[in-house]
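FIELD: query
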Amino acid sequence: MSKISQYLNEHLLGEVTTNAAVRKQLSTDGSMLSLTPEIVVYPRSTNDIRKVLRFTHQLADKGHAISVTARGAGTDQTGGAITQGILVSTTAHMDSIFEFDTKQRLVRVQPGTNFGSLQTALKLQGCYIPSFPDSSAYSTIGGAVANNASGRLSGQNGAIDESVTELEVVLANGDVIQTSRLSKKELSKKKGLQTLEGEIYRSVDNLIEDNRTLIDGQLDTGTIDNSGYANLRKVKHKNGTFDLTPLFVGAQGTLGIVSEMILKAEFYNNEEALVAIAVPDANNFVDLVDELRTLQPDALEVFDGELISLARTHGKRYNIFSLVDGESATPAVIAGLVLCSFRDFSERVRKRKFKKALKLSDKYGGVAEQALKPEVIQEISALRGAVYAAVYSEEKSTIVPSLFRGVYLPHARFEDFRDAVAVLEKATGIKLPYSGYATDGVYSFWPQFSLRSAVDKQKLLKFYDAFVKVVYEHGGSTVGEAAEGRIKSPFIEKRTSDEVAKLYTDLRTIFDPYGTLNAGVKQPVELRTIVAHLRTGYDGIDFAGYSSPS
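FIELD: result
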């Protein structure tokens, strides 16, 4: 590989290294896996990425395939940002915010741009990207697009794909394309090109037409599911217009490497009404959450009683705990806690919803803490840290795997799901406390495991398989917040029909005939391969100390 490194160094503006310390540092992401790259590239431009992919494509054409993986801040929790091949790290140089069109609210950025910095810049213009993930303070916009990330406000705004309007993408052979919504006439011109781009447009259009029934029946189900290439359903509209942009969002760099993107920002409202409600009865808690959803809050964050109990056991104190306990010396039972936020631009509407939320709290026997002023809102918002107080406060030998985060569950099936999970908890002795966003039904579970031995690892994966089974039996998915990467692939593959699996394989082959784009990600992989790459010393705390911006 040293000859390859030398060749790339001679032809790129950016840096290329095989330094052992650098490679080791980039051998992990936010997942439980470890893969050490052979070469690390820090591109300075789209042209650098183009040269890397053109070179690896030529090598693959001669029978020497090397996987190329794009990486942002490395916060991916599924092993999608690591490789044993060439790692292309965008954060060093490709982190520019080029321009912002204030009239159309369109912002053009590079993939290595810090999401939090982008939000800060946009808020100075009275705008923001509403679908930010929890990791936005330290992750990149490129990573969010690669995973089709969602977050606290996605219930009202959708995932990040709703904000992406155009992309610049480097294809597997090094060609650069610009994606946008095309008319029938424009599509016809694209299909006439005698290039890889032309071949892609021709083949994808044919693939959609040949599999229309399958796409409508199995990809367009209403379930939040970022596995495979489900966004294929959004490429061709009934009026004949055609856009490859949605296909690259959530593809984790397996169809091409995104080198620039244009996103549509929304107006940002500084005014917020926030209410925290603690409920002593579990059934009342579920009913309260259901009714709060009808108020269409911007965010509806829930924390179950087990999680709150753990936080209190570890000594965490929030004002609402004192309100619940009153004069009693014994901590009162909290079956669930909810944070409900309203950011409607109309002050009248915002306060009306706020008052209704307080009435619902009384209706279901809750204790409410309300905030309309920024300083009080900040104080109540600190409740989001209850998760970390619950699972990371004490010195212990257990870890909290990221496998269980970002699970989608339909609202109508959530109670039945919880009953099934209670059975699983009882059978295994493993607790599954949860938090999440009730607006779109995406939750994270926080079980604790020991990973001291091979038997421990097998126990974890066996339990996860049982958990995944319960999720899918209740109409959910384990990839509601981001894509599946490497580590979730074996479990999702078992629940993907042969027809859909073939559709995805055919689609990927169109874009990447030699399999050089992020090999092993979003494709069938044996579980033993995953086990072989589970990293020793994993403690589950990668990026755990951060919370998302308000």
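FIELD: remark
Residues 273-392 form a domain with the Alpha-Beta Plaits fold (CATH 3.30.70.3450).
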